[in-house]
User: What shape does this take?
Amino acid sequence: MPSIFEKLYRMGPASLLFKAIIVAIVLDALLLAFILLRRTYRKWYFKKRDARVYEFRQRWHALISGEIPFETWRKKPFDRRIVEEIALDAFEAAGPEESARLLKFLRNSGLIEKRIFEARNHKGWRRLRALVALGRTRAPEGIHALAEGLRDSDLETRLASLRGLARTASPKAAEEILAWLGEAKLTVPELPLQSALVQCCAERPQLLIPFVRNAQGPLREVLGRVLGEVATPSLGPDLLQFAGDKLDELRASVARAMSHSNSELSLNVLIDLAQDRTWFVRLRAIVSLGKQSDDRAIPVLVHGLTDSNRLVRLRGAEALVGLNTETASIFEQVVALQDRYGLHAYLTALENAGLRGRLESRLRDDARLSQAQKDHLFAVLQAGGLRVSEPATIEATPKSAAGLL
Assistant: This one.
């Protein structure tokens, strides 16, 4: 009696098709078995994890206070990961007192030191995971380990380190980022770098000054934008060197820093910047002049109502309305501009501030105006507009203006 192999041999080419069908059936069966086994395992794993999470949650206060010895869970990788995840998730919504308690728990249990060790000695995805966890702790002792990750050859690792340093919001983290930029220049996308520096330099913006002065190219633009976001009045004297800089962001940062300085020098600088060629530099200068509340800035603010950019006109109008003196005189100057866009901006700011009644009262009581002038001003105020010989030119407002409002 011939064997099965002899029968297959006699089938000729058809035997190859039969063998392929058998192999496909076997592979499909193995794949199905793998899928079922994986689903079974995952179901068991998540059930076990949910049970342990529930147990830890029931005893959470005793766990982080140390009443339950750390040795009962720290030597078990499964339990240790669960405890760490719960603690890090709690950081996201914790207040100052709770954050301090959680950080103390992570230190006393050795979880922070473990992540520091992993961030310095592991490679690849293990190092990436350690850097992410270390950044979420916001622990100052982890800054050096995170800074070492900035020098990794992998872009994802560098970004994880950068985001971790940003979470600390520490000037020490800013020093590490700036030192790394001095070595490696710009090796990460601009937005994550800018966000990290804004958070870390908010407390000590003066750290940026020497780096901005010496940086070149795209890096200088990024540092200039950061300086424009974090600049404070205390930086005024240091920023004067950038008042005539060719970089728009630096001139804008100078205008922002001068907002609370009432010196003659700062007023002159802001008046010059209010005539700048770049719209957001003029915007920052107009806003700063409004915050100074100096009557000497009235002519510049009135001229700002004729600006080609809508945001500059609106901010100029708000600054004029915010002044508590010469309301009638300012309105007379606004009408004399014969610019309907400037007039609309001023009347809108007046309505928003609820000061229209005060302006009407000032117009009635102003002795220097003739009755004909008062009637004309009241007519313009009531009509909310005027005729002009030529329409003003309107400059399109960039979408990025939303961040300056």
The longest helix spans residues 14-58. Confidence is low (pLDDT under 50) at residues 387-405. The chain is about 70% helix and 0% strand. The CA atoms of residues 280 and 404 lie 8 Å apart.
